[in-house]
Amino acid sequence: MSEEREKELSGLQYLSQERPKAMQHLLAFFRESGKHLDPKTRFLISVVTKVINFSPRGLRQYLPRAQREGASRDELLDAILCAYPAAGLTKVVDAVEVFRELEREAKLGPAAPAQPEPQWVPVLRAGEVPEGEARVVGVGEKQLAVFNAGGEFLATANACVHQGGYLGEGFLDGEVVICPLHGWQFNVRSGACLNRPNQQVKTYEARVREGQVEVLV
Ligand code: FES
User: What one-character DSSP code corresponds to residue 130?
Assistant: First the structure.
């Protein structure tokens, strides 16, 4: 762990002891604030912040992630440029060097493959999933878990981000599913992992049309 990160963590621990209530609100804000953003946008924002803090390691992590989520080469470069007012020119130029290194190492492709337009796909009848339960469904090569959370249908990738446990076979408590393998807990609306705040399972929009549950994939 870098010295900077260690300092950050011990600072957070100190604040959590000294101002527990204020920190509870602050951490809840962190958890909530990115929930409604799609993964590409979240990762592009992370790129901007990594330029501002000038963290080459962070850039090496988030540039490829944003690209995997569909960001084009131009969007990645624009995200770096967007940091200019807060970061200044030197950090922007240094970040572009990291970008070019990643391209040379082939860790960034020349362009993200075009993403097919998401489509609503019927996956099962609403009546097949009682409240508080889930079902695993296949859509093309994807396997999804469809949850009935108090009458509302929500969907996530079926594979747990830890070691691939089937979330659709987990225990659902309200909007939280507990992975059957090692018990990590995920909010199935936001995808946030409750006991590993830096982890996230992919979520999909779901709706019911004429008794049929459809997911946007
Ligand atoms: S595989 Fe889900 S918690 Fe380990």
Answer: -
Q: Do residues 44 and 83 make contact, with C-beta atoms less than 8 angstroms apart? A: no
State if residue 193 touches ligand 1 by the CB under 6 angstroms criterion: no
pLDDT in tens, 98-116: 999 999 888 887 654 566 7
Cα 189 to middle of ligand 1, angstroms: 18
Cβ of 184 below 6 Å from ligand 1 = yes
Q: Report the alpha-carbon distance of residue 82 to residue 76 in Å, rounded.
A: 10
In degrees, rounded to 5, the angle at the alpha carbon of residue 45 between the alpha carbons of residues 207 and 22 is 85
The structural domains of the chain, ordered by start, are: 34-104 (1.20.1290.10), 120-216 (2.102.10.10)
104: left (phi over 0), alpha (psi -120 to 50) or beta: alpha
For residue 151, give Cα distances in angstroms to 126, 190, 210: 9, 17, 15
Phi first, then psi, for residue 183 (nearest 5°) are 85, 10
The CA R_g of the chain, rounded to the nearest whole Å, is: 20
Task: Give the distance (Å) from ligand 1 centre to CA of residue 199.
Answer: 11
Per-residue pLDDT reduced to its tens digit, 54-107: 899 999 999 999 998 889 999 999 999 999 999 999 999 999 999 999 998 888
What token pair was written down for 160? 């747990």
Cβ 25 vs Cβ 32: under 8 Å: no
| Among candidate residues 35, 11, 5, the one with its CA nearest the CA of residue 23 | 11
